[in-house]
Amino acid sequence: MQHTFLIVLIFLLLPASAFAARPPASFSVARSLIVASSSPGNAYVAGVSVVTTAPVAGDLSAVGGSIVVAAPVQGDGLLFAGSISSRAPLKGDLRAWGGSIHIEEPVAGDLVAFGFSVRDSGRAAGSVFIAAVDVAVTNGASGPVTIYGNNISLAGNFANNVIVTTSGRLTVAASTTILGKLSYEAPEAASIPASVTVVGGIEYTNASYLPDAGTSRILAIVSIGFFLFVRILGALILAGLLAGLFPRLAEAIAERAYTKHPRSILLTMLLGFAILVATPVLCMLLSLTFVGIGLAFLLLLLYFLMALLAIIYAGILLGSVFMRRFTERNTVRWHDGVLGMLALSLIALVPVIGLFVALLLTIFSAGALLQLFFQFAFPHEEHTPEML
Known about the structure:
By secondary structure, this protein is α/β, with parallel strands linked by helices.
């Protein structure tokens, strides 16, 4: 009996609104949607183009490519679209995410907007938070205002503090009144007209978003170091692959470096120098004629391929020389190419002398590659040894 009396007492103490039925929500989805009937509760709409022309008694949630709110909303607004235009009063809070946001009528609650361009010509009664590239608040606000952007414009009567962080420029229109404090961070101080009234004072913080000389120097050194690391790592991988996949070709180039006739080495280097220097000149001459443009383009591609192979095989040649000197092994393995390319990369970092040594090895490799390719394409013996 006591339990029954307690349940009845709780039932009588509950407000009558707890048992009242909530107004039904409306859902609308279409490609081109025009909401022309009033919603007694919350309204949820979605479409490529959405236009609301009837009042909403509850909250409005809309998603679309373009949204136009042309009728009053008694609750909160949650809008997500590429283009948003609020042309009617909103009694609650407004949350908007979009590319272009234009608020023309008052917002009774808080305003939060994220977009590329935000223009607020209505007056929010609550707090305002806006983050966008271009921001314009042209009719003031009743609550505190916080804005992040690049180009920011303020106008109207602001009844509370205004905080602005900009990477570009802050513009305050003439006759603007700020009853609170104006605090802003910008690369340069704003030009504030004499007719502007700021009761709480102005606080400016110089915030340059460009790095200073010391930071720029550090960033440049780090960038160069990262570039060199990636370049050396790529060269090591290519050298290891070519030495492992085509060892006979690498051994043939090394054999030409170990010849007993210095004249043969000199002729090979002269051939490589001629190819690396004469080919660009020949491409320029061919490109002067309409017929030779295609041939010049093809020849230029072959030239870059030859230059890349010459650099890689210069490192492999250096690695094979080390192996013959310290291990007395004539065969070339993949780790010989990696070791030689690492040594060549470190030698090339030495000013003048290192570059000269790397250039000599590259020229010799280019000449040796050209000779070997020519012998492979036009063999003089019946059984030409395979080098690939």
